């Protein structure tokens, strides 16, 4: 496979079909560009010229399988840097939320130095996270403990939190 060509694979999981998209880096390793769930708002779609290569994603699929089986709490997957500086700051803050924990959108806003109306910008950046599950945006909830906003649907967010042993405000959705 040529370096920097776009590869993809469909992987089944407990949340439904996942579309993994990546590229081979100069050193020959896979760099994950996105993980989308079927029916996700703003999810990636396979494009002309992409190459279906499930074997390239074997390691990613194995880590996801271990996570869904409760045998893994984080991921060791090289991911492509994308987005604006602000989005990358928000996404870095997401990666710092420990497994089995939740934080509010306001907490993330404070971590990245966004105040007041910055919570809305944080929410927008979280909604544009291209790496669902791997970059744990599901761990961000409303200040009142309610489940809010998840591009792949609140039911999936609730299932991910339950997998991690978190029950957000009795599972109440806002």
UniProtKB/TrEMBL annotation:
Gene3D superfamilies: Methylated DNA-protein cysteine methyltransferase domain, Winged helix-like DNA-binding domain superfamily/Winged helix DNA-binding domain. The lineage of its organism: Bacteria, Bacillati, Actinomycetota, Actinomycetes, Kitasatosporales. It comes from the Bacteria. InterPro entries: MethylDNA_cys_MeTrfase_DNA-bd, MethylDNA_cys_MeTrfase_DNAb, MGMT_N_sf, WH-like_DNA-bd_sf. The keyword Manganese does not apply. Residues 85-166 form the Methylated-DNA-[protein]-cysteine S-methyltransferase DNA binding domain. It is an enzyme of class 2 (transferase). It comes from Streptomyces roseicoloratus. GO terms for biological process: methylation. Its EC number is 2.1.1.63. GO terms for molecular function: methylated-DNA-[protein]-cysteine S-methyltransferase activity. This is Methylated-DNA--[protein]-cysteine S-methyltransferase.
């Amino acid at each position: 496979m040529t370096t920097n060509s776009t590869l993809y694979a469909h992987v089944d999981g407990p949340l439904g079909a996942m579309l993994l998209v990546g590229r081979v880096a100069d050193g020959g390793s896979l760099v994950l560009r996105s993980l989308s769930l079927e029916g996700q708002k703003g999810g990636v779609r396979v494009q002309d010229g992409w190459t279906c290569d499930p074997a390239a994603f074997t390691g990613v699929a194995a880590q996801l399988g271990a996570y869904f089986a409760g045998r893994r709490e984080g991921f060791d997957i090289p991911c492509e840097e994308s987005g604006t500086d602000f989005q990358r700051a928000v996404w870095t803050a997401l990666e710092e939320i420990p497994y089995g924990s939740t934080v509010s959108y306001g907490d993330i806003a404070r971590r990245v130095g966004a105040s007041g109306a910055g919570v809305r910008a944080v929410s927008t950046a979280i909604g544009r996270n291209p790496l669902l599950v791997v970059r744990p945006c599901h761990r961000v909830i409303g200040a009142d403990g309610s489940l809010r906003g998840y591009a792949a649907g609140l039911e999936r967010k609730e299932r991910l939190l339950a997998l991690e042993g978190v029950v957000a405000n009795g599972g109440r959705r806002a």
